[in-house]
Amino acid sequence: MSSQAAAIDAVFHALAVPARRAMVERLSLGPASVTELAKPLAISLPAVAQHLEVLVTSGLVRTKKTGRVRVCHIEPAALRTTEDWIAKRRSNWARCLDRLAKELGE
Amino acid sequence: MSSQAAAIDAVFHALAVPARRAMVERLSLGPASVTELAKPLAISLPAVAQHLEVLVTSGLVRTKKTGRVRVCHIEPAALRTTEDWIAKRRSNWARCLDRLAKELGE
DNA sequence: TTAATAGTTAAGTTGTTACTGTAGTATTGC
DNA sequence: GCAATACTACAGTAACAACTTAACTATTAA
């Protein structure tokens, strides 16, 4: 698996879990601490920290600890890469349909 | 979880596995039978059939069996929905940055 | 009709992962 | 200093998912 494919893999893996998507949704509205991320979720703080680690590993989220607070924020580039992957497959399929239509037209 | 959220969940869950993404990549180039899908993958045919079922359940793929061959094709709407989810988070974050820049400018 | 092809069903194994509770460290506020 | 806060580390559990093999059905081709 190329490093590009590995990056895609990590992001899709990260986004496959509702709790992690909820964290990304929250972070898309602005930076947040780990505790703030945990607040709307019905899971323990260690569970949130574990999800956060997955998000960080995938490149979707970056964090910086200042004092005792870890502030988290979105990394849009990782979202972009994944969006592009999907768009590519859609456009491939559209091209395939076009080709088919052309062949039928002949 | 709303039905919209459930749909998003199913698609991200489906795309989280490399074998299934490979199947979607193949199908984006045009329809294929189950055996054709299995050919480039290093897993058994039943495994491919199981992955296919996940893809169908998620709405990413549709199939039609004619005779003994099941032909599979992409359903672009499901890809689109997921692409939109990601785009939304990116745009939210961009708006957040804009707002921050404006506040700093004042 | 027989053999080959294409896929399906079912059961079992194995590894992963999401989660918990407990106990800890580091930082901040009183 | 002391208590509260914010997180971190660790160990264990329980559920899930990916995959396999083996056996089966249905369709097509010779």
Number of helices of chain A: 5
CATH class of chain A: Mainly Alpha
For the report, how would you describe the main beta sheet of chain A?
Answer: 3 strands, antiparallel
As residue ranges, the low-confidence spans of chain A are: none
Structure characterization notes:
2 copies of one chain form a homodimer. With 106 residues, chain A is α+β, with helices and mostly antiparallel strands. Chain A has one domain: Winged helix-like DNA-binding domain superfamily/Winged helix DNA-binding domain (Arc Repressor Mutant, subunit A). Chain A contains 5 helices and 3 strands. Chain A has helices at residues 3-15, 18-28, 34-38, 45-58, 76-105; strands spanning 32-33, 61-66, 69-74. The first copy, chain A, has a 3-stranded antiparallel sheet. In chain A, strand 2 and strand 3 form a beta hairpin. The longest helix of chain A is centred in the last third of the chain and has 30 residues, at 76-105. Chain A is elongated, with a radius of gyration of 18 Å. Chain A starts with a helix and ends with a helix. The model of chain A has no long low-confidence stretch (mean pLDDT 96). Chain A binds chain B through residues 1, 5, 8-9, 12-13, 15-16, 18, 21, 24-25, 27-30, 74, 76, 79-80, 82-83, 86-90, 92-94, 96, and chain B through 1, 5, 8-9, 12-13, 15-16, 18, 21, 24-25, 27-30, 74, 76, 79-80, 82-83, 86-90, 92-94, 96. Chain B binds a DNA duplex (30 and 30 nucleotides) through residues 17, 19, 33-35, 43-47, 49-51, 54, 65, 67-70.
